[in-house]
Amino acid sequence: MDSDLFATVDWPSLRVWATPTGGTETIYWVPLLSHATAIAGSYQCAYANFTLSGTTAAGDYVGLAFFAEQYTYQVLSGDTLATIITNLAAAINAESSFIAATASGTTITVYYTAGQPLGTSTAGANGNNFGMYTFSTGAETWDAASKTFAGGTSPTQWQVTLDFGSLEGTLSPDLTGTLVSIPTNNIRKMRWTYAAALQSGAYERSEFEVVVSSWTVTGTNLGYSVAGTGSRRVEDDALEMAYSGTWTVSRGNYSGGTIHDASTTGASVTFAYQATLSHTLYVGTRYTGSGATISFHVDGAAAGSLNLLIPGEDVLLRWPVGIYGAGSHTITVAHAGPGGADFYFDFIELAEPLTDLPTFPAEPQLTLATDWDTEHSLALAPERTAWMIDSLGFTARQNHYTGALWFYELVNPSNVYATGTVTFTGTPAFSSNVSVTLGPTGSALTLTKLVHEGMTADMVALAFATELNRGYTGVWAGVSGNVLTIQSRTVGSAGNANTLAASTTSGGFSATGSGAAFTGGVDGTWLTDLTASPRLNRAARDWHASFFAALGGYEIVSTASFSMELGNGDPSASAGIAQVGPAGDPILLATPSLQTNFSPTSLAFWQEVYAEMAGIQATAGLTPFLQFGEVQWWYFPNNGAGTSFSGMPFYDAWNQSQFLAEFGTAMAVITTNEVNPASYPNEVSFLPGVIGNFTNAIMTFVRTSEASCRFEVLYPTDTNQTTFNQAVNYPVTAWTPAALAVLKTESFGFTLERNLDAAEGTMDFGTSLGFLATQRSQLVGVSDSTTAWIKEVESAEGKGFESVVIFALDQYCLIGYATPLAEGLRRSLMMG
Known about the structure:
alpha+beta; nine-stranded parallel beta sheet; five-stranded antiparallel beta sheet; 13 helices; globular
């Protein structure tokens, strides 16, 4: 909270995105420290002890220094080591703008106070990066050439109080400039970003946490309103919408499943309606990086405008046009320019506020899936997500896809940080200057060191290093004798943009840079760290722990799912984890991700992943339940997005070696999933066994720590339509009713094709394998509102399945499906 480091991310401030009346959206930075009171912990100054030994001699120079200040004492006849220390302490206390000192015998203790009185300084932990170096021209000897201060502490707990009735912020992220009033009645989002402690040297992976607790909200207008029972939302495709100009229609995760788009100035949509009560009138639209300004007219009068241009964002929003009474009204929303910019129109809503949230009947067979690869899980508080599922009445066993992109640790073994060196040669003249200039072109910084008595080339290098290591967020430095090495903290080749120059005013002394800029920076590739412990990163562990605990509080069971995909999986043959085509091409999917194989290397990674997630569930109070989410061979000789592979994905080195050892011959080259399985009896015998052995090994491994863990398999029938896929992607001897708690099926492709017959076949798939209805579950996709997905849900419920899972929460809410789900017709109708 009180760090004085440069804010590389906005940790010192609360960022507020708000729109002033009649204006455009603005980001405000609220300085949090000025709203904070320390309530736990205390300030202690960082310090270092320096002890002097050896023999004194009149005329010697003895001192302590850091970059901006140096304290030199010339030894007099009769001085002792203790009097030298006393005099140095007195000089520091009399002259320094940053430090204070106390003397005790031959030891001086120097404190970093930031210029404040020692007893009341609030420098605290900020001093822990500060360093000083020592020098002597005689036989007097310090116990170290330099030391970094330590022991500084700052409060560990703060109470932050924000008055939203008079909240102010700056318009610049560095918190400079005048504080201005924030329109807190029109805030779109707020964000506070934390940062790990600055590391003093080369980067090492670390973890940190910030605990935010004891939230309280006081004041007036605390009621939370929702659209009440008299409210109406009229979608963009309603017959009542009168469009003028050229419009296009897109289908997707929009209210009602569609959205209209116009890019011509003057294009408009008009809606006339009758309201029975006073209501707030909303327009559903979309912020984008190509957004237009739109204007509102209600009953012929101007009702404001809205700029939909927000660079870098793509956000659906519901904009309040105004409050209107009962009666007849007409609203027109028009594209107000510039031409070519986008005006997206999603809906009109008449909201009659209600402060009591509706209560929905419990759906004991139904649930909503969540997906941690999407921001609708990842970027939302887990407690909120769990509350939404419960509040909507979905109480069946919940299905959570942990994802393929974000749950693991990353490593970049081929990254090289850019560096530059400065070599100091000769003896610098007293009172001369030595300068080093570094940083990006146009914003380079010049550091100048004043030479003190007794300074050497080695000492000059050390002085610059201690300065650069006291909190510079762009670089850090090391020293070896008279050579200063400066390393960029920026990853890879971007560090090569740092310029470098050195100079001196001293004769007989030189300062030589290694070149005009840093060099050697190499970007490398970020890869999944297969050996990190734990395998799950801190964000994944913390989010899921809170999510499962919240669900458990609602007495909802949850299943965590992993597939074989890794967003940053290493595709190289040396890593050995990729599924591979016959020509050695790794199976890289459009997700983007790597389809991992079933080798021991891959298994070792996934065993730990599953076990860690089971442990998180158990700690949250749940009986662990895990899913093998489409844990199979990749289904096609292509990635599904236009890129072909050399064939099917069976040809990683380990898999081929196992096949050769078992059958004494190489695996046949299979280039398509359309082949007749009878033509490849050995492959059809071998390949499903590899999958079964893999999942059995994971189950056994997990149960060594979580004996009660249950498992299910997600099997997609639509991607396994060919007889060959069916033969190799379901290990019938491993995935049995005795081994699995549940068999879950899905067929999103059939749903999108409106093929209810095929969807019925999916639901019946487990019957011949011996799975009772109570041991089966169906996952139903709802991304397209025009499909018959509700009939799929009803059919699975009617079959008595253990659970029916709607995929997913985000699509369900964005499209705005009615809750509870409408009951379908039980009979046919002749329509003309």
